[in-house]
Amino acid sequence: MQDYLVFSAEVAAARASGKPVVALESTIISHGMPYPQNVQTAREVEQIIRDHGAVPATIAIIDGKIRIGLSDDELEQFGNTPGVLKVSRRDLPYVLTSGKLGATTVAATMICAALAGIEVFVTGGIGGVHRGAETSFDISADLQELAQTSVAVVCAGAKSILDLPLTLEYLETHGVPVISVGQDAFPAFYTRDSGLKADFRLDSAVEQAAFIRAKWQLGLCGGVVVSNPVPEAEAMPKAEIDAITQQALSEAAQQGISGKAVTPFLLARIKELTGGRSLATNIALVKHNAVVGSQLAVALHKG
Questions:
Q1: Catalytic site residues?
Q2: Which conformational region is residue 132 in: left (phi greater than 0), alpha (psi within -120 to 50 degrees), or beta?
Q3: What is the pLDDT of residues 245-293, one digit of tens each?
Q4: 162: which residues sit within 8 A by CB, 6+ positions away?
Q5: Which of 24, 25, 102, 266 has an alpha carbon within 20 to 30 A of 68's alpha carbon?
């Protein structure tokens, strides 16, 4: 296993000195945002994590290796290179053995973080059960990864393009606890309140760390969703984003877009339909998650 892992100098130093490390995905750079905002956001998120006492480790596949931590030039490469492969659990062996450039999704980042001994992973929003899944069976691999891989995932809930009630039902069935920070409601990415409740409300990093540590010490394997709502000033009105999402979903269906291509298409189309406001919200929520994730990593480390 260790033959596949390559740690950046910063992450290697953190491991040697016992500093907490926070994992970050690379798909958000290559597929989640346009250039150059993607690279700028990645650098700013990494700096937020450093400013809050932890070390960032953006994860990606380069030259047959799982890279735990990227350089500035490598962040630029992922943000500005067309055709970077989107890597989930099933794709890891292929991308590693083919030597292709691969950006890790939530599921793949969780796997790689666990291999590297990293307990906290910060992202934008998790995948979930897609609308119409009762006939398409389109369910994100993120959910199954949360059921089996012991990494805490700090996110702004699940993406609002999904079937959120079914997503929470799936997580409950697989024993994945959903924590909400600062409110009882489960957030829906662009909006603070999905109209659904999280399982537990734990506002402080100390409370979250105690919960997560107890879960794992009991031998209850699998992840924890730490859902952190987008700051109120940057949130989008629920009615507006729901209408725009429905339009984008209809267009995706009309164009025959399916599978891995759905989420990037929807995010890009929603950005167009909101005049760029959704991108600003996306950036704000990722940065906010970086603060909460860093605090959690420090609390887990101290605990």
A1: 25, 159
A2: left
A3: 999 989 998 999 887 788 788 888 999 999 999 999 999 999 999 999 9
A4: 127, 128, 129, 130, 131, 140
A5: 266
250: left (phi over 0), alpha (psi -120 to 50) or beta: alpha
The label of the residue with tokens 């909101």 reads 274
Q: Kindly report, residue by residue over 179-235, the tens digit of the pLDDT.
A: 999 999 999 999 999 999 999 999 999 999 999 999 999 999 999 999 999 999 999
Q: Which residue type, as a one-letter code, is found at position 27?
A: T
DSSP letters for 24-74? E-SHHHHTSS-TTHHHHHHHHHHHHHHHTT-EEEEEEEETTEEEES--HHH
Q: Which residues contact 302 (CB under 8 A, 6 or more apart)?
A: 209
Map residue 174 onto helix, strand or coil: coil
For residue 81, pLDDT beyond 90: yes
In the numeric block, which tokens belong to residue 216? 């794992």
